Amino acid sequence: MLIEAFSEGPGGGNGAAVVLLERPEPTAWMQRLAGSLRQSETAFLLRVQNHWLLRWFTPTCEVPLCGHATLASLLALGHWQQLQPGDDLELWTRSGPLSVRLERGVRRRGSMVLPSGELRPAAPPADLQSLLSQRIGSPAEAFWTSSLGYAVALLHPSAELSACVGLAAELPQALRPGLVLMQPLSAESPPLPARPALLDGLPLDFQLRFFAPGLGIDEDPVTGSAHALVAPWWQQRLGRDFVVGWQCSDRPGGVLSRAASSGMIRLFGSGHLLWDGTLLTEPQGCETAGGSACASTALDDDSWSSLLPPG
Questions:
Q1: Which of 43, 93, 133, 203 could pair with 69 in a Cys bridge, judged by C-beta atoms 3.0 to 4.6 Å apart?
Q2: Active site residue: 41, 62, 103, 219, which one?
Q3: 180-189 residue pLDDT tens
Q4: 3-class SS at 97?
Q5: 97 assigned to some structural domain
Q6: d(CA 172, CA 253)
């Protein structure tokens, strides 16, 4: 299945393939499949001992957290009637259990609680400041590193964030694992594309772009983990428990972020189902019928078993 997360129609948001596994499969096979599907992330769902396990892969590597593919996985479970509207569920991941909820009364809309991560103030790297001055006319006003491995730079409201097309190829090596560029929005900001119905009547507080060539993603269209990372800073700055961010990529989308307990952030979003079908491939060396040998080997591998809750 392919769902365009944080979008209410085709051609927007961030595409994520979602694969429902009948048994645990080897990491190398899932990575090759993600490389073939060529989405920002491919999500793999597996039910073990009444727990849903979730893993995410870019075309080149497995990642510890992905917001848009978590939303896509939630909506896929609803489409497959594994989850009913109004139900809460925990997805067990490399970032711990993530609580998700399928919303009532609205088709393909849900929410998820993600870890925010910690922003750590730092001096902006000189090579980044030079690059930003050349590309958008002004350096960063503030800079942070984070526990997610992403760097975050705050730009002046007048900076031309739209001029950052192709920035990934020029990023310094230290920033290639992930760079968030963000800036405040105001009534004086240039008009943005039509927002989804989820955000009707809400202010747009900031916009951002996210580059991660080190993860095989030159630019991610709409990045749930990036919004969860920066939302607490904007909430504190604006003095309220919710903020709305816009990601001004070539497939733009908006994210509503609300404070949750213990430093977590609940993100709300919709998704558009682009296609659904049957995967006609098997890992090499695995039997099609039963697959007991492959399943045993993969489940014994810490990459799957480590996701299960204690006991």
A1: 43
A2: 41
A3: 999 999 766 7
A4: strand
A5: yes
A6: 27
